[in-house]
Amino acid sequence: MIDQDIPHLSEVTPSVLRALGVPGSTGSLDLPGARSACVLLVDGLGWELLAEYAADAPALAALRSSRLRVGYPATTAAGLAAIGTGVASGEHGLAGYTFEVPGVGVVNALSWRDHDTGADLRGPLPPEEAQPLPTTFARARAAGLDSRVVSAARFADTALTRAVLRDGDYRGVHALGDLAAAVLDALDTERCFCWGYHGDLDLLGHVYGPGSRPWRMQLRQVDRLVESLVAGLPPGALLAVVADHGMITLDDTAVDLEEEPGLLAGVRAFGGEVRARHVYTEPGAVDDVLAAWRAILGDRAWVAGREQAIEEGWFGPRVADHVRPRIGDVVAAARGRSGMLRGLAEPVESSLIGQHGSFTPAEQLVPLAVAYG
After folding, report:
1. Predicted confidence (pLDDT) per residue in 74-83, tens digit
2. Entry's SUPFAM superfamilies (predicted)?
3. How far apart are CA 106 and CA 334, in angstroms?
4. Which of the listed CATH numbers 3.40.50.11810, 3.40.50.150, 3.20.20.70, 3.40.720.10 matches domain 9-247+359-372?
5. What is the pLDDT of residues 170-221, one digit of tens each?
């Protein structure tokens, strides 16, 4: 498990708002005052990966940087929600890549569809109700700041955007060039708070593996992006580069849940992902399921009941009442480079080389790299 004294990703945006002079902002990170600021999130940029491949990212490596922990689960939906709300998963409620909402089903947080049937869930589960907390962007706007979201044009009206990035003026972009231009335009604006997003490093890490040649070539492009932004920073502007999680390459200790009858007995639904599973049990079966998962997985995973996981702070210091049932009756976080596949039910996810979600330093630790104009 990761040292809890390392600052959490959710502290980044409150700290940036404090640097911008927003009253009541409580972030604890040491950032000097600024007139405009952008938080650029590079999906999948782990601290350990950046250290190992620093030669491919000299501009990033040259910035003043420190470590953050992303919390559990170490996955994009939870990370984006931590940035968008300033709290951990137990409060914002996006408790996994997939999670069960009572009366609705198992929700895929990225597509906002039923994970089993593919049905659109925006009607039965409006994003603003699934994540009702005010966003960072709303707080910035209420304080008189120009509040912007710079991300791929195709994400502009998605349910996830509505859940965790609402109240930001969305600037849809198509490639690295207009991403850089839109971020610099925001930083040129007096009293502007901006969040930018780049997702291709994570994509190539999943497909080819973190540290592979395609991944390293993409890291070099990310570094050119950061280099361009740093070179263009106007006076009084702050750029903070962060990530939502790191990544590991699975090894042959991964288990396919569908091929282990003992891991299916008493289970009515699965959530989470390969490295971080929610297990929803049949009535009265939780103790048997918990015992079976611990016995069968052994040292391949940390396995806990819902209440134990909450008490141990897996989902942050507080868990809201409406979030509790989204957490599995049993939760399992993969150790080492193992995983919990579902080859038939999740063929795409189970085929990916690179994975994330659990508690290892490779997944949990990300950089906070800072530059000032």
Report:
1. 999 999 999 9
2. Alkaline phosphatase-like
3. 21
4. 3.40.720.10
5. 999 999 999 999 999 999 999 999 999 999 999 999 999 999 999 999 999 9
